[in-house]
Structures are given as C-alpha cells and as structure tokens.
Design a protein that fits this description.
By secondary structure, this protein is of the alpha/beta class. It is built from ten helices and eight strands. A hairpin with a 3-residue loop joins strand 1 and strand 2 (15-20).
C-alpha cells in the first residue's frame, strides 16, 4: 500500500454517511429500516398483547396464538436487523476497497443516545433522535470501516472531537463557531470569511485537512490532536502524524523486522551468528 488514498467521513442521522476524498463529496441517505417497519411492528405487537401471555406467578402457559404472534414480531425485527447489516457491509466494503487511510472523529454513541433529563421539555424529540442514531448503527459502521481498512494493511485515525471540533470549525479560515454545534444548524456561513458549506460536508472537509496537515487557521496537525487507530485503547498512539511521517514509520518498522536487525538486538542470536 502507498497510503495515498485518504477518505474522511462524517456520520449522521438524516445523511447516514458523508465522505470526502480530496476531490468529491459523497452523501448516503439514511435508509431508515426501522422507521419503515415501525408501524407494522407496533400493529403486530398490539395483536400479541391481546393473547394469553406466559405468567410464572400465576403459572399460566402461553397460548398457541401468543406464540404465533411472537414469532411474527420476531420475524419483522430480524428482517430489519438483517437489512441494516447487509447495507452496512456493502457500504463499508466499498469504502475499504478503494481507500488506504480512513479519518473520522471520536463518537461516543452510548452518551449520544442517553435519555433526556428529568423535567426536560423535549423528551419526544430526544427519543426520536436516539432512535434515528441507533437505526443508522453509527458504532457498527465505524467498527466495520476500521477493521476492513486495517485488514488490508490500511490505517484508520479517530480524531479527538473536543480538540479538532470538525462540526464547529470553518474549513476555509479555521475559526471555531460555538453556535454551529446545534444540530438544527445544517448550513454553515462563516462570519469571518463568508465561506458557506453544509454541516456534514464541512465536518468531512475539516477532518481531511487535518489528516494531510493543511488545516487552515490554527494549523492543527494530526500529531497534536490525539488521533488513535480504531483498535487502539490508548489516547496517545504511535501511528499518528502526516503522510510523510506515516511512511517513515512504516519503513522503520519494516527495517526492524529484518533478520539482520533481530540478530543485532538479540545477544543469543548474535553469539550463534559469530
């Protein structure tokens, strides 16, 4: 691998995946598999509730009609899961086959899908957002892209969101706008340089610029943003830096794995060789 083909991608709900590879943007809409089958699942679940359900306290067994209704609900839920998994594999396999380096931001899906706080006036909106996030399967998409790129010898870098701020940073001048963090703000206009771009495209562009060390404004480099590989548990990873640094790191690893280097480091092998 030459580590020349880079793709930066941003995950979302209305647009499931927005990618940028240095030449063009690609937006994949959210298929909404669960939303499309939600009413049918609710209807069959309602029919199941009217049947005699199992009850251990009363020692009642489930009726045959309840079993039949349960199978119908499970069949629908399994279909939704299979459709989502099939779509995820097709999308991630296509990305991994064409690119050697993937760049994205750190997403904590568990925190993003927490329930609304007590006393909140927008519980329904938060519940709907949580359902949309889980319907896309952001965490699974990230993992699939990561292990498929790394399986062929590529690299995946996960940037620290709090430092890079891809959704709040202007790709043209590098200025950070705090009000851009609101999800309702889908079209960004920079008040410093009048640069206009869609939210998801801007995030993908900022991450791509960080990866190639061409981030405007602050000039943030990949070595300064705690970028980690997808399988790494440590914040400060070894495989970080610009493309030139990555290639140097790769060459040094290959030289260290040579037989001459192993003999020079191991006294036992050195004595045998002498």
């Amino acid at each position: 691998l030459k580590y020349e083909s880079i793709i930066a991608y941003d995950l979302g709900t209305s647009t499931a995946l927005t990618t940028y590879d240095g030449s063009e943007y690609v937006e994949l809409t959210n298929p909404r598999f669960l939303r499309n089958k939600e009413q049918e699942i609710k209807r069959k679940s309602k029919l199941r509730r009217r049947k005699v359900a199992p009850n251990t306290k009363k020692r009642t067994k489930p009726s045959n009609r309840w079993k039949k209704a349960s199978k119908a609900v499970s069949r629908l839920q399994r279909k939704v899961s299979n459709q989502r998994q099939d779509w995820q594999h097709k999308v991630t396999s296509d990305i991994a086959s064409r690119y050697d380096i993937g760049v994205t931001e750190e997403l904590r899906v568990r925190n993003m899908t927490r329930k609304a706080l007590k006393g909140s006036k927008r519980k329904r909106q938060k519940a709907g957002l949580n359902k949309s996030i889980l319907d896309v399967g952001m965490s699974t998409l990230n993992k699939m892209i990561g292990y498929k790129i790394e399986a062929k010898g590529g690299l995946l870098f996960v940037l620290d969101t709090k430092k890079v701020k891809p959704s709040q940073r202007c790709p043209n001048c590098g200025k950070v706008h705090k009000h851009w963090a609101e999800l309702s703000n889908r079209h960004h206009v920079c008040d410093a340089c009048d640069f206009e771009i869609e939210r998801d495209k801007g995030s993908a562009l900022v991450m791509y610029q960080v990866a190639i060390n061409k981030q405007p404004g602050d000039g943030i480099a990949l070595v300064n943003v705690d970028a980690c590989g997808s399988t790494s548990k440590k914040r400060n990873c070894k495989d970080t830096g610009s493309l030139k640094q990555l290639q140097q790191k790769k060459r040094s690893k290959l030289s260290k794995s040579s037989p001459e280097h192993r003999v020079a480091r191991n006294p036992v092998l050195r004595s045998e060789a002498g």
